[in-house]
């Protein structure tokens, strides 16, 4: 009996030891995978932004490290921030740049392609902003007046939709370059995380895309008819002229939201105008 009890106890100890070792190995693998992903993403960030700094002529020593932080709402995303303030000849702060840029937490080739695409898009925006500043700062005439406009460019992001393959990220923000007010910015991007590509409306619906566009027209027509004071007289024509070729849409769990910027369909006071077409009224997504 004692022999059986000892044998049973030994077996239980071995099982427990195996479980503990397995948990430890799994945790180690997770840490190593996380570190590998972080290093891969960090390398992509450094490569793209080094190119940006060279194009803008900025001194690399003046740029703070761009470090990844985990997104608290989405486990598959991290983000990094780029913040910079420029001054005029009098030392006054006249330009503020504040970007929050998402990155996919994956070392797969698809994720690397998407992160590179994201970084290059943001890099293009930064290059444009720095060029605006430098052109004003170094121009021979009226440089102080131009750069004293106190421009700012702020952008963050929202995830409006995500499933096992698709993620829709909307880059939102605000840009000001003088005048009575700035302009809101929405840039929507539907990413195929499996294949590492960005998708257009025609990719999502194939041959049925015209049906989707028609539903969009009808939704805007109804909105315009409900309160015509918010819209320009040619608002319906603008919708038909601009919607089909634009990326001014984003996916939600309920349907597809189409939007237009201020001054497109109505005055600035009307803001960004949007309509949502429920999936029940649309063809089936091809993803």
Automatic annotation (TrEMBL):
<feature type="domain" description="DUF3298">
    <location>
        <begin position="203"/>
        <end position="280"/>
    </location>
</feature>
<dbReference type="Pfam" id="PF13739">
    <property type="entry name" value="PdaC"/>
</dbReference>
<protein>
    <recommendedName>
        <fullName>DUF3298 domain-containing protein</fullName>
    </recommendedName>
</protein>
<dbReference type="InterPro" id="IPR021729">
    <property type="entry name" value="DUF3298"/>
</dbReference>
<dbReference type="Pfam" id="PF11738">
    <property type="entry name" value="DUF3298"/>
</dbReference>
<dbReference type="InterPro" id="IPR025303">
    <property type="entry name" value="PdaC"/>
</dbReference>
<feature type="domain" description="Deacetylase PdaC">
    <location>
        <begin position="94"/>
        <end position="183"/>
    </location>
</feature>
<dbReference type="InterPro" id="IPR037126">
    <property type="entry name" value="PdaC/RsiV-like_sf"/>
</dbReference>
């Amino acid at each position: 009996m004692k022999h059986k009890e000892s044998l049973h106890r030994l077996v239980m100890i071995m099982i427990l030891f195996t479980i503990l070792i397995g948990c430890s190995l799994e945790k180690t693998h997770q840490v190593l995978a996380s570190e590998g992903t972080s290093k891969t993403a960090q390398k992509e960030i450094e490569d793209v932004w080094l190119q940006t700094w060279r194009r803008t002529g900025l001194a690399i020593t003046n740029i703070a490290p761009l470090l990844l932080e985990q997104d608290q709402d989405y486990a598959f995303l991290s983000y990094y921030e780029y913040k910079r303030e420029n001054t005029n000849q009098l030392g006054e702060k006249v330009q503020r740049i504040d970007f929050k840029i998402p990155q996919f937490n994956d070392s797969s080739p698809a994720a690397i392609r998407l992160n590179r695409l994201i970084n290059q898009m943001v890099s293009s925006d930064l290059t444009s902003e720095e060029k605006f500043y430098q052109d004003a700062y170094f121009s021979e005439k009226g440089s102080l007046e131009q750069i004293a406009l106190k421009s700012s460019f702020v952008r963050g992001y929202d995830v409006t939709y995500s499933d096992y393959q698709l993620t829709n990220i909307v880059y939102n923000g605000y840009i000001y370059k003088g005048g009575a007010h700035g302009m809101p910015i929405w840039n929507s991007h539907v990413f195929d995380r499996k294949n590492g590509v960005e998708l257009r409306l025609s990719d999502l619906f194939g041959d049925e895309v015209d049906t989707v566009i028609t539903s969009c027209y009808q939704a805007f027509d109804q909105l315009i008819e409900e309160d015509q004071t918010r819209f320009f007289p040619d608002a319906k024509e603008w919708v038909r002229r601009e919607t089909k070729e634009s990326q001014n849409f984003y996916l939600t769990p309920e349907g597809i939201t189409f939007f237009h910027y201020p001054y497109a369909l109505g005055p600035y006071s009307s803001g960004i105008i949007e309509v949502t077409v429920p999936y029940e009224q649309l063809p089936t997504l091809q993803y």
